[in-house]
């Protein structure tokens, strides 16, 4: 073997007659040069790329309510937008994973980062096209000041028609959809090409550490993403273009839209920056001596390389790939993989679990907003500072437990199942941590104070507001002195107003007098916004947070053992294919549909829909909180229940698989066991070449 340099890449060339060159693979001089500074740079660049893609992905999750309100779309369409990332990813994942590995991997990753940044910028683009956000339709007045003559009625109708013409153009949310698809396409090469690059050019004993470091750093991304979402949700969408003194709503209002676009500009810039280092990295690096055996002589090394069954994937053959041969090998390999009952059950369980997890995480900030009356900013802050760190700590702790107790296949399966089951039982307590519906006249209670749900618009009208010619489509809530929220000042029967902006106070609100509590007041005033949630619900919220952190940590404990189980329950030569099929299945059958059907089911609990400028149905303004809690938590827990029943069948199949493996190992003897350990790539560098050569000779003799 000898060393040559071409295009900054390391190549190994053999000569049957001579062994020339400065550094032989087994020499100490070569060993001292194994760790290229380029590998350090690649690790840093890949960590930054992982961080940036995780940041933009979590920021997308944090803005779902902002996008819903800004574009006046229901939750299921938000689910379509959220799932579009997986759609883009699936479009090119097979092509990139296969052909990208044969090209300049760092530059392919760089191009992916550039595409991700362009997609992120495209998501923000509608803000600069759609115009200013008008809170109450197209009228400049922020409470229903009704026309008193025909001329004023015609003016309002004319304004509505012009606004409808503007809205009838291309739906702006389509740009968000396309931008997220582009993000998915750009993200595709980062993980498969980045991890394979590390695995090829790092020491075998260090590769896992480096990959773990990259994954650990990427956990910071969601934390920063949710915190960025919290910050931007506090800032009004048109900050810098409007006088904030004229804005009558607060971040806690159901109509508030934060500066969602600002975070995408920041995330896009960070992602674009992460592409820069990859342009300066070489196509390949020196292969470490540990990829071979340090005790080998040159003749033994040549023997190992030429052997048809010995570590061929650690070398870079220069001859072109035989596509016909690969196609012939692919179908039997896929048939063998899908013919494994243990793998199929594992795949079904993880698909169901991922449906539950993705749907729950996507709408959890919205659940906190709607159920506990928190602002979008606070919900995102809590997700970033409490839930995400708990998940990260749980996954790390699960790996520590695996190593400390040296869990095997059955041990890993039992540990993952036990933690998931414990988290499931704890999650049942969420069903009891409910809040009553907000008191809204005409929706959750009558104007006389009798509680009862109403889904009909006519329930918004009463004798106290019959002469006001109010619109039942408006949503400009005011809080009466009696503690009841009214859909608008007009529907509250208010006839006067004092103050400006957020300090506006409405007087002589006749509908307040219909309730027992309202009869004690003489002024009958109402202020802008919802009435505060009940104290009992406010006291319940900290317990919800505490239980949420505990369950997130416990369930995450089984994440690492569950992944290890996937790798160990299949043949070593099918490992890469199994991981690819697993990724494809979970993204296709969980990542795409889960946000859509979760959103559609949540939409069924809406009590009052907003209206678009053309009169169509917009975003939901208020939900039936009891029904929301039942369908959101019920669907999450129901899916996990189905997964547990499948786990019982999986345990039986796994036990049979383990017994068969043990019998096979005993029957084949020590030589076969030694050969199997070599094919699994675990501890290849510490085995003596003479034993390996002997094992090869023995096996070839038997064949």
Automatic annotation (TrEMBL):
Q: Which residues form the Major facilitator superfamily (MFS) profile domain?
A: 42-659
Q: Which Pfam families match?
A: Kazal_2, OATP
Which reactions is this enzyme annotated as catalysing? L-thyroxine sulfate(out) = L-thyroxine sulfate(in); 3,3',5'-triiodo-L-thyronine(out) = 3,3',5'-triiodo-L-thyronine(in); L-thyroxine(out) = L-thyroxine(in)
Predominant subcellular localization, coarse grouping: membrane
Q: Name one GO molecular function term.
A: sodium-independent organic anion transmembrane transporter activity
Q: Which UniProt keywords apply?
A: Cell membrane, Disulfide bond, Glycoprotein, Ion transport, Lipid transport, Membrane, Transmembrane, Transmembrane helix, Transport
Domain of life of the native organism:
Eukaryota
Q: Per the database record, which ranges form the Kazal-like domain?
A: 458-510
Which InterPro entries does this one have? Kazal_dom (IPR002350), Kazal_dom_sf (IPR036058), MFS_dom (IPR020846), MFS_trans_sf (IPR036259), OATP (IPR004156)
Question: Could you give one GO CC term from the UniProt record?
Answer: basolateral plasma membrane
The membrane-spanning stretches of this chain are 30-52, 73-96, 108-130, 261-281, 343-361, 381-401, 413-433, 540-567, 631-654
Q: Where in the cell is it found?
A: Cell membrane
Q: How does it sit in the membrane?
A: Multi-pass membrane protein
Listed GO biological process terms: lipid transport; monoatomic ion transport; sodium-independent organic anion transport
Sequence similarity: Belongs to the organo anion transporter (TC 2.A.60) family.
Query: By what name is this protein known?
Result: Solute carrier organic anion transporter family member
Q: What is the lineage of its organism?
A: Eukaryota, Metazoa, Chordata, Craniata, Vertebrata
């Amino acid at each position: 073997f000898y060393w040559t340099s071409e295009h900054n890449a390391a190549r190994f060339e053999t000569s049957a007659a001579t062994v020339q060159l400065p550094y032989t693979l087994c020499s100490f001089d070569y060993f001292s040069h194994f760790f290229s500074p380029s590998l350090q740079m690649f690790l840093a660049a890949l960590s930054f790329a992982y961080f940036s893609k995780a940041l933009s992905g979590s920021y997308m999750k944090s803005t779902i309510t902002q996008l819903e309100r800004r574009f006046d779309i229901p939750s299921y369409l938000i689910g379509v937008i959220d799932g579009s990332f997986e759609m883009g990813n699936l479009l090119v994942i097979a092509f990139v994973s296969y052909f990208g590995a044969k090209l300049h991997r760092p530059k392919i990753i760089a191009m992916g980062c550039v595409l991700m940044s362009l997609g992120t910028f495209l998501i923000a683009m509608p803000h600069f096209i759609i115009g200013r956000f008008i809170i109450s339709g197209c009228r400049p007045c922020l409470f229903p000041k009704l026309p008193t003559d025909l001329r004023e009625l015609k003016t309002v109708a004319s304004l509505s028609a012009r606004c409808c013409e503007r809205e009838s153009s291309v739906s702006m949310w389509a740009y968000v959809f396309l931008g997220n698809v582009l993000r998915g396409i750009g993200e595709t090469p980062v993980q498969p090409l980045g991890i394979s690059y590390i695995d090829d050019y790092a020491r075998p004993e260090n590769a896992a550490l480096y990959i773990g470091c990259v994954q650990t750093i990427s956990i910071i991304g969601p934390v920063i993403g949710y915190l960025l979402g919290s910050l931007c949700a506090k800032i009004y969408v048109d900050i810098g273009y409007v006088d904030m003194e004229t804005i009558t709503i607060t971040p806690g209002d159901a109509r508030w839209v934060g500066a969602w676009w600002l975070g995408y500009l920041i995330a896009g810039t960070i992602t674009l920056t992460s592409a820069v280092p990859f342009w300066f990295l070489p196509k390949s690096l020196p292969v470490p001596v540990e990829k071979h055996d340090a005790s080998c002589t040159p003749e033994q090394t040549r023997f190992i390389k030429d052997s048809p069954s010995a570590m061929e994937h650690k070398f870079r053959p220069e001859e072109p790939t035989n596509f016909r041969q690969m196609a012939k090998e692919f179908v039997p390999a896929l048939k063998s993989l899908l013919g494994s009952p243990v793998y199929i059950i594992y795949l079904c369980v993880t698909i169901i679990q991922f449906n539950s997890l993705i749907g729950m995480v996507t709408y959890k900030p919205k659940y906190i907003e709607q159920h506990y009356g928190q602002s979008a900013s606070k919900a995102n802050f809590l997700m970033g500072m409490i839930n995400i760190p708990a998940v990260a700590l749980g996954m790390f702790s699960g790996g520590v437990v695996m190593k400390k107790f040296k869990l095997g296949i059955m041990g890993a399966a039992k540990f993952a199942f036990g933690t998931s089951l414990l988290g499931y039982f704890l999650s049942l307590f969420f069903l009891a941590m409910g809040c009553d519906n907000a008191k809204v006249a005409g929706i959750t209670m009558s104007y006389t104070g009798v509680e009862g749900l109403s889904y009909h618009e006519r329930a918004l009208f009463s004798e106290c507001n019959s002469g006001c010619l109010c619109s039942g489509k408006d949503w400009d809530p005011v809080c009466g002195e009696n503690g009841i929220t009214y859909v608008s000042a007009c529907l509250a029967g208010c006839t006067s107003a004092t103050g400006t902006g957020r300090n506006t106070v409405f007087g002589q609100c006749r509908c307040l007098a219909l309730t027992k509590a309202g009869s004690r007041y003489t002024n009958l005033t109402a202020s802008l916004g919802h009435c505060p949630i009940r104290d009992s619900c406010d006291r319940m919220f900290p317990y919800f947070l505490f239980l949420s952190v505990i369950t997130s940590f416990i369930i995450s404990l089984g994440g690492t053992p569950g992944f290890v189980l996937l790798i160990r329950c299949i043949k070593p030569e099918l490992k890469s294919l199994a991981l690819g099929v697993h990724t494809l299945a979970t993204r296709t059958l969980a990542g795409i549909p889960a946000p859509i059907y979760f959103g559609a089911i949540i939409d069924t609990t809406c009590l009052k829909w907003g209206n678009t400028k053309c009169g169509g149905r917009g975003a939901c303004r208020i939900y039936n909180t009891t029904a929301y809690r039942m369908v959101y938590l019920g669907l999450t827990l129901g899916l996990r229940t189905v997964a547990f029943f499948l786990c019982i069948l999986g345990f039986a199949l796994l036990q049979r698989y383990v017994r068969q493996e043990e019998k096979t190992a005993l029957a084949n003897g020590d030589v076969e066991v030694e050969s199997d350990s070599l094919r699994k790539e675990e501890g290849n560098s510490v085995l003596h070449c003479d034993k390996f050569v002997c094992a090869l000779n023995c096996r070839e003799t038997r064949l």
